Amino acid sequence: MATALFALKGTRMVKDAIVVGAGIGGLAAAIALAQRGTQVQIFEQAAQITEVGAGLQISPNGLVVLRALGVEAALMARGSVQARAVVLADYKRAGTVARLDLGRLRDQRYLFVHRADLIETLAERAAALGVQIHLGQRMSGLTNNGLHGPMGTAHAELIIGADGLHSVVRAALNPASDPFFTGQVAWRALVETPTGMEQPVARVTMGPGAHMVSYPLRGGSLTNIVAVQERKDWAQEGWFHRDDPANLRAAFATFTGPARALLERVEQVHLWGLFRHDVAQCWYRNGAAILGDAAHPTLPFMAQGANLALEDAWVLAAHGGPALTRLRRARAVKVVAAANANARRYHLREGPLRQAAHLGLRLGSQLAPERMMRAFDWIYGVDVTAQ
Questions:
Q1: Confidence (pLDDT) at 5
Q2: Measuring CA to CA, which residue among 270, 253, 159 is closest to residue 207?
């Protein structure tokens, strides 16, 4: 059946593949290929597959891929939360600015997922399909002769760079480009959910030059926090850098209500600088492909990083590397641009513009809720598994 599916898609089955990186995109690509009969190996630089405490929003366009990969039920069994709404709130004024009802997504589900749960679920599925995962393998480069690493030079019909921001495979396919600091930093933390705040909603608390996103994980027992602030001080990229929770609370000292209650519970926090990167021009050449952050790093303001990586992985397996740039780049560029724009909307300063914008959101969610949700159809309504 797998070979027949490839024939229907107009591509031939790939005999063997190497994936660099055992993150979400890499594991998803390995599974999608293995389901089609490809022998897959993953080379991961970490000594073990682990994740810092962090949440993910899996929107319908990503969930359809997880369903096709055969992991949706296992992921739900780990306590993933089905989201009901996105609530927009003000940093000091009580009440709701706007509420986006996710129940209007036409029988599609939107999930809040612990990143570690997703990684473990994907890794188990990959292993069950015979994917070999090699840990502690930092790959040093890619040439026409193969992929170079501590085990020597590895060869395969298809080499996939799912190796993130500093991808060695992207470097072989594209000229170097310099990211630039956006003037924004983000803190990420997990806290025990306060009593009465277990509702399955994503809460976006908007303040002048800053905003905070929070949503429940693992059945509501934990709450994920991402807090973004505009500032001139540069911070290193990547979310593995520890910071003092007091710095987070000081940066959001003017935030009140539910946001303040969550901030007071933070005991461990990670800080990272937000940088803009160019979307890669070339995603495939001569048997080598890139996907996920290796191809299109995005700011976290549309919650689409993991979802785009899942889409990439499926499209690569279903349609083949030569079609990857043509089928994926324009969509990635559009989503990245939308994420860039969202930060400005969340961070409006006090004054008439902010008041008018919030009034528009409030009236839109009350008088035309269906129309507000339809504005996201171009993202959530895409099903790459049906194309």
A1: 30
A2: 253
Given the structure tokens 């059946």, which residue do they identify?
1
* Alpha carbon distances (Å) from 365 to 4, 107, 253, 357, 359: 46, 20, 29, 12, 10
CA distance 227 to 233: 16
Q: 């009034």: which residue's tokens?
A: 359
Share of the chain above pLDDT 70, in %: 94
Residues 311 and 29: their CA atoms lie apart, in Å, by 9
φ, ψ for residue 117, nearest 5 deg: -65, -40
Sign of the C-alpha dihedral computed for residues 322, 324, 327 and 330 taken in this order: negative
CA angle 58/63/68 to nearest 5° reads 150
Distance, in Å, from the CA atom of 282 to the CA atom of 272, rounded to the nearest integer, reads 27
Q: What predicted TM-score, i.e. pTM, was given to this entire model?
A: 0.93
Q: Are 111 and 83 in contact (CB under 8 A)?
A: yes
* Beta carbons within 8 Å of 65's beta carbon, 6+ residues apart: 28, 310, 311, 313, 314, 384, 385
- Residues of 76-111 as b/e, b for ≥16 C-beta within 10 angstroms? bebbbbebebbbbbbbeeeeebbbbebbebeebbbb
* Span 10-67, pLDDT tens digits: 456 899 999 999 999 999 999 999 999 999 999 999 888 776 668 999 999 999 999 9
CA geometry: angle at 291 spanning 70 and 181, to 5°?
125
